[in-house]
């Protein structure tokens, strides 16, 4: 009997794959699945189920039902769901429009129907525009899939031992393979947050703990009252928008200066943080030839040379990271703006290559070769611009901070400072290496939580993931209108005499208020996640996530879900689950592969999606096809 006759005489039942989570990660993975299916799937029928209480495509974060005032902090030209020739993957490249191309092409009519203005390639569009793009991509992916697709607008609550996915409605789906592509997870409050909430409630105060701002109830923040806000990143920007324009205020512009017209319903926001300054504005330019490149000093080979086993982040990795960023900055400065340097690049590079950025030899070389302080890169000064400063009064501090923000806006719009763009690109490359080191177990739990997920990610976000420049212009307008005040660095908050009291190490005096907002996302902790599916899988041992402890025995809370290099779930006993896959920010080693990829960037998310999709296809391929490959 021929192989063809064998296929005809014996047909396997359809394979069923269930995706829990219908956001961009699932969409991207299924796009890669469709691309490689003609090569790997053979003739077996496949049924795809996508389970998410929010519509597939955008999922929760990128849903259509959210405020039109909330923007992305990426330009339209920086986002794509589709692979291009830059992507190094085993599967075929299947090009499609990036967001900027889609807006003026297939998306133009869709956006007009939705009442959304078109956005240029250098614009920071509303999140609703991205929601429409993702919905369109999802429709296209469904058409390309060699499978029947069923979506379930509800939550998955259980995965049984015989691989049935149980939904909140009671419906059950028997699955051959399950992919948990969970994004932002709600979590139980920490002991500290629970204590804050209880005490605030008893005193009639308003306390808003960390959370995704678009989902937070802000009705307790009253018009005209002072509100202490701790956090100066994306969560604060969203809060600022919802409490100003979202309450009826508007902006006027005259001679390039923005003015805010209050509605009278706004509270007064006193905002501070650890740094005491807002995140840097997004870069407003591109420079030909500047793009992410492989790391030079922080490489897998360099880490291997440091020895086997667990490495120390502070003494072994941090110096290499700083050197990587320093190299990127000065290489671009010397090549792009040689008129602002006194040495040749060759002479300067020789000193950099043999020393560390903190060494006296290199510090002296910078002093001699780079005359302007504005052209120099010192990571510690970039990270903490107010460190060591003390201001005699709040007015003096606020004047200083206004000038700092104004200068940042000018610099981030000026390609004469393209060394900043080189550092941005280097940050992306460093993240990729750190992700590999985490997955390979080269970092201790304490280093991963404290130094990578907290300190390093905070620095990355501060420098590379800040708001659109317009948002900082609005911040300054709100300051001039008296709606926003600046509270200072190292902001501490306590309750005293029935009020919240905030103090800063760099600014004298205290701020008293009835309301306090923690404007940040909660730290990922899957052991504290409220999702019933995850909790059940962790309790049964099907999933593993260490409870993390510092070297002195202090608990660091829960970490991320454990997965192997192929994204297969690792059970509590250390074994690998062959048919349960984990993807997203709550999974160990996800650094650098979450978020959206930029066109022509060879994004790690594409590479990971492609590898997982091809693995899934091989698992689901017909037995006859597997036997053919084995025989060959």
UniProtKB/TrEMBL annotation:
Q: Which InterPro entries match?
A: FAD/NAD-bd_sf (IPR036188), HpyO/CreE_NAD-binding (IPR038732), L-asp_N-monooxygenase_NS-form (IPR052189)
| Signal peptide residues on this chain, from the entry's feature table | none
What residues does the FAD-dependent urate hydroxylase HpyO/Asp monooxygenase CreE-like FAD/NAD(P)-binding domain cover?
18-184
Pfam family name, one: NAD_binding_9
In which domain of life is the source organism classified?
Bacteria
Q: What is this protein called?
A: FAD-NAD(P)-binding protein
Lineage of this protein's species? Bacteria, Bacillati, Actinomycetota, Actinomycetes, Propionibacteriales
């Amino acid at each position: 009997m021929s192989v063809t006759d064998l296929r005809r005489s014996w047909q396997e039942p359809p394979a069923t794959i269930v995706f829990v989570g219908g956001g961009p990660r699932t969409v991207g993975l299924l796009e890669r699945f469709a691309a490689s299916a003609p090569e790997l799937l053979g003739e077996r029928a496949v049924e795809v189920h996508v389970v998410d209480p929010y519509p597939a495509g955008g999922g929760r974060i990128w849903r259509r039902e959210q405020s039109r005032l909330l923007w992305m902090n990426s330009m339209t030209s920086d986002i794509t769901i589709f692979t291009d020739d830059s992507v190094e993957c085993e599967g075929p490249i299947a090009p499609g429009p990036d967001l900027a191309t889609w807006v003026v092409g297939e998306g133009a009519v869709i956006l007009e129907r939705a009442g959304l203005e078109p956005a240029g390639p250098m614009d920071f569009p509303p999140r609703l525009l991205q929601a429409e793009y993702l919905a369109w991509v999802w429709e296209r992916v469904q058409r390309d899939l060699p499978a029947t697709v069923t979506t379930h607008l509800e939550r998955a609550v259980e995965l049984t031992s015989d691989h049935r996915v149980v939904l909140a409605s009671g419906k059950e789906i028997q699955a051959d393979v399950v992919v948990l592509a969970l994004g932002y997870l709600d979590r139980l409050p920490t002991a500290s947050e629970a204590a804050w909430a209880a005490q605030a409630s008893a005193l009639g105060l308003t306390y808003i703990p960390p959370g995704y701002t678009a989902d937070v109830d802000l009705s307790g923040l009253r018009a005209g009252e002072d509100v202490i806000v701790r956090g100066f990143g994306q969560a604060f920007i969203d809060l600022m928008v919802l409490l100003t324009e979202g309450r009826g205020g508007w902006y006027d512009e005259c001679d390039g200066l923005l003015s805010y017209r209050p509605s009278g319903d706004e509270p007064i926001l006193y905002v501070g943080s650890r740094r005491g300054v807002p995140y840097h504005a997004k870069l407003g330019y591109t420079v030909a030839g500047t793009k992410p490149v492989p790391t030079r000093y922080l490489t897998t080979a360099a880490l291997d040379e440091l020895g086997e086993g667990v490495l120390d982040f502070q003494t072994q990795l941090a110096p290499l990271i700083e050197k990587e960023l320093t190299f990127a900055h000065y290489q671009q400065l010397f090549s792009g703006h040689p008129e602002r340097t006194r040495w040749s690049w060759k002479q300067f590079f020789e000193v950099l290559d043999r020393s560390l950025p903190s060494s006296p030899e290199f510090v002296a070389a910078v002093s001699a070769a780079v005359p302007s302080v504005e052209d120099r890169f010192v990571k510690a000064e970039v990270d903490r611009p107010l460190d060591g400063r003390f201001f005699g009064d709040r007015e003096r501090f606020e004047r200083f901070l206004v000038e700092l923000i104004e200068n940042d806006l000018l610099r981030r719009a000026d390609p004469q400072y393209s060394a900043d763009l080189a550092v941005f690109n280097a940050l992306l490359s460093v993240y990729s290496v750190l992700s590999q080191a985490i997955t390979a177990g080269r970092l201790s739990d304490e280093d991963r939580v404290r130094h990578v997920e907290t300190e390093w990610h905070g620095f990355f976000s501060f420098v590379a993931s800040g708001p659109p420049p317009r948002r900082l212009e609005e911040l300054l307008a709100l300051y001039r209108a008296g709606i926003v005040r600046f509270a200072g660095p190292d902001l501490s908050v306590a309750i005293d005499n029935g009020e919240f009291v905030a103090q800063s190490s760099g600014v004298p005096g205290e701020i008293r208020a009835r309301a306090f907002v923690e404007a940040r996302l909660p730290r990922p902790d899957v052991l504290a996640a409220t999702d019933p599916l995850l909790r059940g899988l962790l309790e049964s041992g099907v999933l593993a996530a260490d409870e993390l402890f510092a070297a002195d025995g202090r608990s660091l809370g829960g970490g991320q879900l454990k997965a192997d290099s192929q994204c297969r779930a690792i059970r509590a006993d250390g074994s690998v689950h062959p048919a349960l896959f984990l993807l997203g920010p709550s999974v160990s080693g996800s650094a650098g592969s979450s978020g959206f990829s930029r066109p022509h960037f060879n994004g790690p998310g594409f590479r990971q999606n492609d590898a997982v999709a091809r693995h899934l296809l091989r698992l689901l391929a017909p037995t006859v096809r597997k036997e053919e490959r084995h025989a060959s």
